[in-house]
Amino acid sequence: MPKPGALRVLLFSASLRTDSLNTRLARLARSVLETAWATVDWATMNEFDGPSYNQDVETGSGFPHGPREMHRRLEVCNAFVIATPEYNASMPGHLKNAIDWVSRIRPQPFNARHGLLMSASPSMAGGNRGLWSLRIPLEHLGARVFPDMFSLAQAHKAFGDGGQLAEKQLATRFEENLRAFLDLVEAATHYPCIKKAWVEFLGEPGDTVGRVEAA
Ligand SMILES: Cc1cc2nc3c(=O)[nH]c(=O)nc-3n(C[C@H](O)[C@H](O)[C@H](O)COP(=O)(O)O)c2cc1C
User: Fold this and answer.
1) Which residue ranges of the chain lie beneath pLDDT 50?
2) Cα–ligand 1 centroid distance for 16 (angstroms)
3) Which residues line ligand 1 (CB under 6 A)?
């Protein structure tokens, strides 16, 4: 168990809508994380959203506010948790767009940072395919994405009146998933993983200043 407040976790729902099921799931995650003594930085996707990535904009006027904010808050956390909707069997475009912008800012903040992914959907699969698609760019960027992911099926019927998961077994699994993740993040603060290098993908010119981060 980490010391009270020792681990800082950036937590956000990747839904932009007000009555989001994923935001409800993220709220639950917040209470579990805080009960386990983590310090939670609660964010909304509105804070991180930005215009479609355009390299001309990056070169001409720099990074938009939303992605800069996401970068800043990732930089000061030990780990991040994302609750995301699934759109057409993938992640929402605005989330991928934010990741694309942030991936251009140095130091590249996903590298070596621990992440936990969760989803909620009215479907029977709970948005799980979206999480597999989200895993790809995050792992590409060097994030340590926790093996267990949590997908809440039939999410429109899954919450009780107090906002808890109505089904007890599911509530226990949700809590255990988050606690196991925190344990790993805590362990990693004492035993940093060997992998430290993140190298920009093949095809980028190798002589561009700041393109490559190495151990
Ligand atoms: C463009 C679009 C595509 C969607 N595609 C899927 C899908 O592939 N799988 C799924 O389970 N739900 C899909 N849905 C339904 C969402 O899971 C549902 O709207 C959910 O409530 C969105 O998450 P939120 O409540 O956090 O905003 C889609 C919704 C939209 C708007």
Assistant:
1) 209-211, 215
2) 12
3) 15, 17, 20-22, 85-89, 120-123, 127
This prediction has a pTM of 0.93
Three-state SS for the chain is CCCCCCCEEEEEECCCCCCCHHHHHHHHHHHHHHHCCCEEEEEEHHHHCCCCCCHHHHHHHCCCHHHHHHHHHHHCCCEEEEEECCECCECCHHHHHHHHHHCCCCCCCCCCCEEEEEEECCCCCCCHHHHHHHHHHHHHCCCEECCCCEEECCHHHCECCCCCECCHHHHHHHHHHHHHHHHHHHHHHHCCCCCCCECCCCCCCCCCCCCCECC
CA of 89 relative to ligand 1 center, distance in Å: 9
pLDDT digits (tens, 9 = 90+) for 38-55: 999 999 999 999 999 999
In this prediction, residue 178 carries a pLDDT of 98
